[in-house]
Design a protein that fits this description.
The radius of gyration is 21 Å and the shape is globular. Among the domains are: 32-120, no CATH class; 121-259, no CATH class. Helices cover 42% and strands 17% of the residues. The strands form 2 sheets. Strands 1, 3, 4, 5, 6 and 7 form a 6-stranded mixed beta sheet that branches. Strands 2-8 form a two-stranded antiparallel sheet. Helix 1 (7-15) packs across helix 2. The protein has helices at 7-15, 17-25, 35-55, 60-77, 88-95, 100-120, 183-187, 193-206, 238-259, 286-291, 312-315; strands at 4-5, 28-30, 122-133, 148-158, 164-172, 212-219, 227-233, 305-307. Residues 316-326 have low confidence and may be disordered. It starts with a strand and ends in an 11-residue tail after the last helix. With 326 residues, the chain is α/β, with parallel strands linked by helices. A hairpin with a 7-residue loop joins strand 6 (212-219) and strand 7. The protein has 11 helices and 8 strands. The protein binds iron/sulfur cluster. Iron/sulfur cluster binds next to helix 2 and helix 10.
C-alpha cells in the first residue's frame, strides 16, 4: 500500500480497479499527454502567477503580461506549438479551441472578471500542499498509520468577512448558451470527493471550521468568455461522512494490494484488479485492457505507453489529468 493517496489515485480505483492497476501499480502512462490536460496545466500556472502578483499589489497590465508568459512557458514545456508556428490550416486541426491565442483572450477577460476579488481578498496560500491523516492515532505510542491523504490547494483566501475560502481553478468546454456553463457541469461538484477532501484537509490544517470551496470555472470557447464561481458548501457532518467513505475505499484498496493477485505462471487471466466496464468509453487503457487478459505476463509498457510513477506529493500539480472534461 502506498504511504500517500490522493484524489486521483482513489478516483482511479473507484472508477475501475484494473485502471488503478495499470496506472498506479504498473505505472503505465500514454506517451503523449492529451491537449486538454496540457491546456489545463498551463491555465493553472497562469492563474497562480496572476493571483500571486495581484496580491503583491502589481498593476493589472503587469499581472496580465506575467500570467500570459507563465502560460506560454508551461505550454512550451509540454512540447506544444503556438499558432504562429503552425500553418493557418493546421491550427484548428492540431490545437482546436485549446490554443494560446484563446488562452490570452481568456486571461484578459479573467482579470476583468476577477480583479475586484483579487484586490479585496487576502491571499493565504497559493498551490499549498497538504498531508493529513486518514486514520485516528492508535496503539501505545499513539501513532497514525499510513496512508495519508495528500493534495495541493490552488488558492486559499480570506474574504472581507474573515471567512476562509478554498478556490479551485478549473477549465471546461461545457458551454451552455443560457448561463455559459452546462448545468450538468455545475452540478458535478456536489457530491464531489475532491471538494470534500480538500475541505477536510483545510479544516485540519487551519484548525478552524472552513465550510466553503468555490470552483473558479473558466469556459474554453472560441468566442464566448465566461467565468463562474461555483460555491460548494458542506454541512457539519458531511465531512465526517466523507471520511468514513474514504476509509472504506482505502480499506478496499489495501485488501486488493495485500492479496497480491499474482496468478500462477502461464495463467491466461490475472485473477484480480477487477474490470469495471462501466467506464471504458473514455478510458486511456482501453487498448491494453482489451488486448491483455493477464497483463502480469508483460514486463514492458505496451506500444504507445511509457513508465512513469505517479508521486502524489511531487506530481499533484497535474491532477487536472483526471479532471479534464475532454
Ligand atoms: S478499459 Fe474499462 S475495464 Fe479496462 S481499465 Fe479501462 S475502464 Fe477498466
Amino acid at each position: 500500500m502506498p504511504k500517500y493517496v490522493d484524489n486521483t489515485m482513489l478516483g482511479a480505483f473507484k472508477r475501475c480497479p484494473r485502471q488503478y492497476y495499470f496506472r498506479h501499480i504498473r505505472h503505465w502512462v500514454p506517451d503523449t499527454r492529451a491537449l486538454p490536460l496540457s491546456f489545463g496545466l498551463a491555465w493553472h500556472e497562469a492563474l497562480h502567477t496572476a493571483w500571486s502578483l495581484a496580491s503583491q499589489g502589481q498593476p493589472k497590465h503587469e499581472v496580465l503580461g506575467a500570467a500570459l508568459a507563465a502560460f506560454l512557458k508551461c505550454w512550451r514545456e509540454e512540447g506544444l506549438p503556438t499558432e504562429d508556428e503552425l500553418e493557418p490550416t493546421e491550427v484548428r486541426e492540431k490545437l482546436g479551441v485549446r490554443r494560446p491565442g484563446v488562452a490570452a483572450e481568456m486571461l484578459h477577460a479573467y482579470l476583468e472578471a476577477r480583479w475586484e476579488h483579487m484586490q479585496r481578498w487576502r491571499v493565504l496560500g497559493i498551490e499549498r500542499p497538504f498531508i493529513v491523516p486518514i486514520w485516528p492515532p492508535s496503539g501505545a505510542d499513539g501513532r497514525v498509520r499510513p496512508p495519508f491523504y495528500v493534495g495541493r490547494i490552488d488558492l486559499l483566501v480570506e474574504d472581507d468577512q474573515g471567512e476562509v475560502l478554498i478556490i479551485e481553478h478549473k477549465t471546461t468546454t461545457q458551454y451552455a448558451r443560457t448561463t455559459g456553463f452546462r448545468q450538468s457541469y455545475i452540478e458535478s461538484f456536489n457530491p464531489n470527493a475532491q471538494v470534500d477532501g480538500y475541505l477536510y484537509a483545510v479544516n485540519l490544517l487551519l484548525n478552524r471550521p472552513v465550510r466553503q470551496l468555490w470552483v473558479d470555472a473558466a469556459l474554453v470557447h472560441d468566442r464566448e468568455r465566461h467565468f463562474k464561481f461555483i460555491p460548494c458548501s458542506r454541512r457539519e457532518h458531511a465531512l465526517e461522512e466523507w471520511l468514513w467513505s474514504l476509509r472504506y475505499w482505502v480499506d478496499q484498496l489495501e485488501r486488493e494490494e495485500e492479496r497480491g493477485w499474482h496468478p500462477p505462471a502461464g495463467s491466461p487471466i490475472m485473477y484480480g484488479w477487477a474490470r469495471n466496464d462501466q467506464h471504458c468509453f473514455s478510458c486511456l487503457y482501453r487498448d491494453p485492457c482489451t488486448a491483455m487478459l493477464n497483463p502480469e505476463e508483460r514486463d514492458e509498457p505496451p506500444l504507445g505507453f511509457r513508465q512513469e510513477a505517479w508521486d502524489p506529493l511531487e506530481i499533484n500539480r497535474i491532477r487536472v489529468e483526471e479532471e479534464s472534461d475532454a
